[in-house]
Amino acid sequence: QVQLVESGGGLVQAGGSLRLSCAASGNRYSLNLMGWYRQAPGKQRDLVATLTSGGSENYADSVKGRFTISRDNAKNTVYLQMNNLKPEDTAVYYCFASRFVGYWGQGTQVTVSS
Q1: Mind listing the pLDDT tens digit for each residue in 61-85?
Q2: pLDDT for 6-38, tens place per residue?
Q3: Which runs of E-coded beta strand occur in 3-114?
Q4: From CA 49, how far away is CA 34, in angstroms rounded?
Q5: Is the pLDDT of residue 90 over 90?
Q6: Which of 30, 41, 81, 104 has its CA 20 to 30 A from that of 22?
Q7: How much is the pLDDT for 27?
Q8: How far apart, in whole angstroms, are the C-alpha atoms of residue 80 and residue 66?
């Protein structure tokens, strides 16, 4: 069973930066897709960014130019560097990974104060 463990969330002022990490374990095969989703209170879970094992990136329009996704395949870890954070980025951020089936992390809270 694949497990995803996120870290790096917290409280930051608007304009600040945070870096999220998600480490995968228990996968016998490499994970084709890894990425991040977020869910604000009362809203649906939305895509933030994804990255394939081949290097193809996909970003939500709202984070383009501010967030950067990267992964270390040797460490089975995906990162999300978040710069110029805005109050509307406040949400629980979930790591996602897939190969044949999808897996979710437990989520990490990101709060951006104005």
Answers
A1: 999 999 999 999 889 999 999 999 9
A2: 999 999 999 999 999 999 988 877 888 999 999
A3: 3-7, 10-13, 18-25, 33-39, 46-52, 57-59, 67-72, 77-82, 91-99, 101-104, 108-113
A4: 9
A5: yes
A6: 41
A7: 83
A8: 10
* Chain position carrying tokens 């016998």: 28
User: Quick one: residue 107, left, alpha or beta (phi over 0 = left, psi -120 to 50 = alpha)?
Assistant: left
Question: Is residue 53 scored above 80 in pLDDT?
Answer: yes
Is the Cβ–Cβ distance between 97 and 1 less than 8 Å? no
Any bridge partners for residue 54, and if so which?
none
Task: Report DSSP letters for 43-56, one per residue.
Answer: S--EEEEEEETT--
Q: What angle do CA 37, 17, 92 make, to 5 degrees?
A: 30
- 63's CB contacts (< 8 A; 6+ apart) are 48, 49, 82, 89
> What contacts 73, CB < 8 A, 6 or more positions away?
30, 53
- Going by C-alpha positions, the residue among 103, 105, 114 that lies closest to residue 38 is 105
